[in-house]
């Protein structure tokens, strides 16, 4: 049985539009840079076109270098519009309130972006709600802009819906304050919290209650049905092994590897049942774990600039040495040799 391939994830090419707009606002023609990454006008107009997350990170880094603006992600976010999130964004734009718009945008995130690290969430309580973007640590110049653009983008998208400029009640950023930290303050009424546990922004109950003047009940319900159907289609998997592979990504982190019992709890199956069903599919949990780690390791080494110690941490290895031994066993190459080989092939 062929093993399922694991990717870091991908996102809609709609995310490229605010990047191009931000460069243009700064006096740079984005076309040559976008064409270098295969993103000409035809590609950007292709229905359901996706861009791999590593490629998006390289594109963002190149755009920051071109513009000389490390806060480019914040500018991108402020230029984001709901239709750039595809069907999910168009559906959110028909929601009756900002609450439902935010909930819709995050619930249907798999329709426009997928990352093995996790998914965004809408967490409401009696006083308001958190809009939370999952961790993509460790942070560097290739991925900080992703957090910036997403959080600023949520505010801009909801602001356009309400017809008023919104600010978050609170803004938490997982990485330490960058050199451009003062530029975040326009997004929030209180001091921005850097080095936080989560990447998230908080909206008050009054903000969530704001009415969408463009709401049409029938259109809203029709679009919700379309989103639900597409979500089922996109998240359908063919085997238990594939379901486990999708689960392993978020569980791999912090110098530890997930165990069979932990995965069984997530699947709400007894451990012995899970082991038996995998045997019926001709595989074992350990094989799936190793295959997932190998695929992700190859992707990280080939498509990112992460240090090998950082990759070891992301894949749940106790040390960089343990990771390097495993990688040599899988590929008969050291991580350094594999990276050099891939650079030569590229």
What characterizes the major β-sheet?
4 strands, antiparallel
Over the alpha carbons, how many angstroms does the gyration radius reach? 21 Å
Oligomer: single chain
| H-E order | EHHHEHHHHEEEHEEHHHHHHHHH
User: Please, how many helices?
Assistant: 17
Strand content: 5-15%
Structural class of the helices, strands and pairings?
A: alpha+beta
Could you explain how this protein is built, in words?
The chain has 346 residues and is α+β, with helices and mostly antiparallel strands. It folds into 2 domains: 163 residues, no CATH class; 106 residues, Homeodomain-like (Arc Repressor Mutant, subunit A). It is built from 17 helices and 7 strands. The strands form 2 sheets. Strands 4-5-7-6 form a 4-stranded antiparallel β-sheet. Helix 5 runs parallel beside helix 8, helix 6 runs antiparallel to helix 7 and helix 15 crosses helix 16.
